[in-house]
Amino acid sequence: MSKLLEVNNLSTSFFTKFGEVKAVNNISFDLEPGQVLAIVGESGSGKSVTSMSVMRLVAKGGKIVNGSIMFDGKDLAKLSEKEMSKIRGKEISMIFQDPMTCLNPVFTIGNQMEESLKLHFKGMTASERHTKMLDMMEKVGLSNPEERLKQYPHELSGGMRQRIMIAMSLLCGPKLLIADEPTTALDVTIQAQIMDLMRDLSEELNTAIILITHDLGVVASIADRVNVMYCGEIVESAPVKDLYYKPLHPYTWGLLKALPRLDMKENELQPIPGSTPDLLLEQKGCPFFDRCDHAMECCRDGKPPIYEVEKGHFAKCWRYHPEFKEEQ
Amino acid sequence: MFKYILKRLAMGVVVVFVIATITFWLSRALPGGPFDRDKPLNPIIIENLNKKYNLDRPVAEQYIDYMVDVAQFDFGPSYFYENETVNDYIDRCFPVSLVLGIGAMIVAILLGIPAGVISALKQNGWQDNIIKILTTVLVSLPNFVIASALMYFIGYKLRLLPVALWGTPQQAIMPTLALAAYPLSYITKMMKSSMLEVMNSDYIRTAKAKGASNFLIVYKHALKNAVLPVITVVGPMFAGIITGSLVVEKLFAIPGLGEQFTKSIFNRDYPMIMGLTIFYSILLIAATLIVDVVYALVDPRIKLGKESKE
């Protein structure tokens, strides 16, 4: 099957006065048209930097230092800024975490939505744009779209604004939608609605989604595949069912164990002890070594390669070395 | 909106009343009388003068008379200049100060906003460094130093512009620049920090993700948001320029209101002191009201006079 997106050996670093921070360290993954890929990991694991690298919108001081991002036959890492701006918003669009601050407060919803169409479909007439906007707003389940267009962001609720953001991002028919924690700032009932909406629209419009989140519950409901990131590396990559039923990497075990459950008593949350290592320091061994209950001698001294343990299920851990045997 | 403006105007009247009362009693509390001179006048002359200006009557009565006059925008006669009222002075001098002030404000805004934007976009670049140095110098130098420097170099050495006086457009250039220096630096610095903040905001990231060009991002998405805090300072700043232009007016021998204000204090010209104080407070109140209205027009989140829904 042809791939929509192929990221190969991507490394993105931030150059600070203290040294180079490898926020994304040599990761590879791919995505088929219409597929939903979740990237999970705790704060600072490089999820957002990965997505910003694909958009080529890495913040000041950050740079893609290595690797290629093949999208539709073009290497996004090598495109000029001008060529890239034709892809942003049209081929790949993005929605963000906090819908309260992601819309410009001083322009109407209509003005902001119309802008995408004006930017990417130069020949479109005003009435065509209008019909298209109303159509899309209906698709994302907004009532009174005509009226909404004239409103300002502060007049809408968080859920409505996120729907507007989704409508805006899908307006130009992108092949890929990057959703960076789209539901984190919303309350739980709205979260479910937004996730359902994204799933439905992805199927209807055949849009692939990269969903960035630290919420494993959200992942289960929508994703086809999951990449687990830790310290800028993908430590496990699996189809969503395999990840829940047969997690391989000790970090994934920790993440799943940390999920609160309904039958749990209060104060029973099980966090992963310790915190992520300082990315300024060169990692000799496995970055999870310090926090891993199953760490071995070799974990300290050498970085594990990525093993395909089962078909389509990868893990970056010495435990899957052919010569490894469980000691107990 | 209309109701809100009416309400604000009513509040303004109360503020003016309070200010008028305070200045009246304060000026009466000053030691010495309006007709004290280095060489004392004949007591009979003073008595006659007091009689002429009703100063022989009880202070409470004077106060009531004065407030009634002020309510009709009549600030009374000057004690120092014969045959001229305070109103005559304001009519004659205020337009000069107003033109000077508006000129300085236009220069400050037209240069300050773009300078701030450039400074923010090229943060730590050479453009930013030059602007930083210039604004720091301009903000630290008192305007009489700037005025003197301009007069010396441009007026006297290079003979490009007339050194002083008022009347021709050429004569207005140097005092306008001298007055604009401080607000210009202030607006530049403010615009810079506001622009930096806005450029890091989430909605700018959204605009980038939409594929908007840098030009569109700066001029559409960022500028309107970044200019909001600047609007708030422009009103009081404008009133401050008009009232604070006395040193520059004095240096360039410009017959403006600022110069008159200081003179009136030395002359114990009570009606002039009070009249000008009240006039200035009206200016300040009007300026803040205008700013609030403009702010509401630019920022849709602000609805004047309505309780916020959230």
| CATH level 4 superfamily of one domain in chain B | MetI-like
Query: Could you give the count of β-strands of chain A?
Result: 12
What is the CATH architecture term of one domain in chain B?
Orthogonal Bundle
Query: By helix and strand content of chain B, what is the structural category?
Result: mainly alpha
Major sheet of chain B: none
What integer is the average pLDDT of chain A? 84
The radius of gyration over CA of chain A amounts to 21 Å
Fraction of helical residues of chain A: 25-40%
Question: Mean pLDDT of chain B, rounded to whole units?
Answer: 80
The H/E string of chain B reads HHHHHHHHHHHHH
Along the chain, the helix and strand elements of chain A come as EEEHEEHEHHHHHEHEHEEHHHEE
Number of strands of chain B: 0
| Main beta-sheet annotation of chain A | 8 strands, mixed
Query: How would the global form of chain A be characterised?
Result: globular
The greatest inter-chain interface is formed by:
A-B, 30 and 23 residues
Would you spell out the secondary-structure blueprint of this structure?
The complex is a heterodimer of chains A (328) and B (310).
Chain A: E1 5-16, E2 19-31, E3 36-40, H1 47-55, E4 62-71, E5 74-75, H2 81-87, E6 92-95, H3 99-102, H4 109-120, H5 126-139, H6 145-150, H7 158-170, E7 176-180, H8 188-205, E8 208-213, H9 216-222, E9 225-230, E10 233-239, H10 240-245, H11 250-258, H12 297-301, E11 307-310, E12 313-315
Parallel strand pairs in A: 3-8, 3-9, 6-7, 7-8
Antiparallel strand pairs in A: 1-2, 1-4, 4-5, 9-10, 10-12, 11-12
Helix pairs in contact in A: 4-7, 5-7, 7-8
Chain B: H1 2-29, H2 43-52, H3 59-71, H4 86-121, H5 126-140, H6 143-157, H7 169-199, H8 202-209, H9 214-226, H10 228-243, H11 246-251, H12 257-266, H13 270-298
Helix pairs in contact in B: 1-3, 1-13, 4-5, 4-7, 4-10, 5-7, 6-7, 7-9, 7-10, 8-9, 10-13, 12-13
